[in-house]
Specification:
alpha/beta; Rossmann fold; six-stranded mixed beta sheet; six-stranded parallel beta sheet; 9 helices; binds 2'-monophosphoadenosine-5'-diphosphate; aromatic amino acid biosynthesis; NADP binding; shikimate 3-dehydrogenase (NADP+) activity; EC 1.1.1.25; NAD(P)-bd_dom_sf
């Protein structure tokens, strides 16, 4: 079988092997997908060894997504703009780096959840690597405005500047939103939930028509998704759909086949609830 895998540190909780095995089964692809725990100082040698021993592709996850971009011979535009890579393709002795996180989120929002985001007002909470990965693809949808709110203003400002040529982006602190009207979509891209923390998210951002989306996901409701539901959001969703959709985009890059994501998403979330 052709070899694929996911590299991260730590990696034991990754659902990628399950998702890719379900995709492979579904589409009759002869492949294997390994879970590879790789410490930051071993990343380069681990990638090279995987390539040398016939590996065909890798997913790259926390904390390696920006570091691994240096190892690619060529990057897609979206990986370059995001400054991060979550998918490597090994072909003709070359390493091609791509990033399917943003398009995975967009597919979940627009195809699975049927949201109309053209002309919408979008708020992203957080200004780290996750925000950098999704801002470009969200701006491609031509929202009316994109606000990046962060605990540390300077990081939000740096991202707003980075993305300013792609659409209307502004930066602020959590308690200093540019307007008091609820947003159409509020995305949590902070890593606070991971650490079991719940920062003072801006309450005025959420109204009865607001869709809230946490990039994190869990077997039970994440702190942000609980907070959003308590604010009376129209919907409060976790990032299971993005997880499966970004995997499907990687699978398609590797195998040229588009898997049926809805079946797999149902399998994942039924197991989770
Ligand atoms: P990632 O790659 O997951 O985005 P990161 O680059 O470390 O990780 O960014 C983490 C984000 O979560 C940042 O926006 C961070 O805010 P700061 O820029 O102010 O550090 C945010 N974050 C993490 N813990 C937080 C907390 N307890 N309260 C508010 N924001 C938090």
């Amino acid at each position: 079988p052709d070899r694929y895998g996911v590299m991260g540190y730590p990696i034991s909780h990754s659902r990628s092997p399950v998702i890719h095995r379900l995709f492979a089964l579904q589409s009759g692809q002869h492949m294997q997908y390994e879970l590879l725990q790789v410490a930051p100082d071993k990343l380069e040698s681990a990638v090279q060894q995987f390539q040398r021993t016939g590996g065909r592709g890798l997913n790259i996850t926390v904390p390696h997504k920006s570091e691994v971009a240096r190892l690619a011979d060529e990057l897609s535009d979206r990986a370059r703009i995001a400054g991060a890579v979550n998918t490597l393709i090994f072909q003709d002795e070359k390493i091609f780096g791509d990033n399917t996180d943003g398009i995975g989120l967009v597919r979940d929002l627009t195809t699975n959840l049927q949201l109309e985001l053209r002309g919408a007002r979008i708020l992203i909470l957080g200004a780290g690597g996750a925000t950098r990965g999704i801002a470009g693809p969200l701006l491609d949808l031509q929202p009316r405005s994109l606000v990046i709110a962060n605990r540390t203003l300077a990081k939000a400002e740096a991202l707003a500047t980075h993305f300013s040529s792609y659409g209307s982006v502004t930066a602020c602190r959590f308690n200093d939103l540019p307007d008091n009207e609820p947003y159409d979509l509020v995305i949590n891209a902070t890593s606070a939930g991971f650490k079991g923390e719940n920062p003072p998210y801006p309450e005025s951002a959420v109204g009865s028509a607001t869709v809230c989306y946490d990039l994190s996901y869990g077997l039970t409701a994440t702190p942000f998704s609980q907070w959003a539901a308590a604010q009376g959001a129209a919907r409060s969703l976790m990032g299971w759909g993005m997880l499966v959709e970004q995997a499907a985009e990687s699978f398609q890059l590797w195998r040229g086949v588009r898997p049926d994501t809805i079946t797999v998403l149902n399998q994942m979330t039924i197991n989770a609830s």
